[in-house]
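To whoever is on call:

I kicked off a structure prediction for a single chain this morning and the downstream step that reads the tokens threw a length-mismatch warning. I double-checked the sequence; it's 110 residues and nothing unusual in it as far as I can see. Pasting both halves so you can look.
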Amino acid sequence: MTNVMTYKGYSARIEYDDEDGIFFGRLAGISDGVGFHADNVEELRTAFRESVDDYIETCAKIGKSPEKPYSGKVMFRIDPEVHARAARAAELAGKSLNEWAGEVLAKAAG
């Protein structure tokens, strides 16, 4: 079971604090610390949506563009041999390396 909520393109992983008896979460994929909590699931859904709406509204008020969770651009370093094998696999599949890697990552990520 995945404990994730999604709203307006933003997601948050949900956790439970047994000591305090609350559910809590934080918007994922952005550096601005936007968190929320509630005593039950219905209130948590509301708190999550309100935190997203408040974040977007606050950014507009202060003239800042709200961070988007992910741009779709991924930059990472891999071993040159892995790079070569991936490029060959993409070519043999008749795809660009970006298209091939996107499909492989999507499959691996579920």
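Update from on-call: the warning came from a stale cache, not from the record. Cleared it. Sanity check on the structure: The mean pLDDT is 90.
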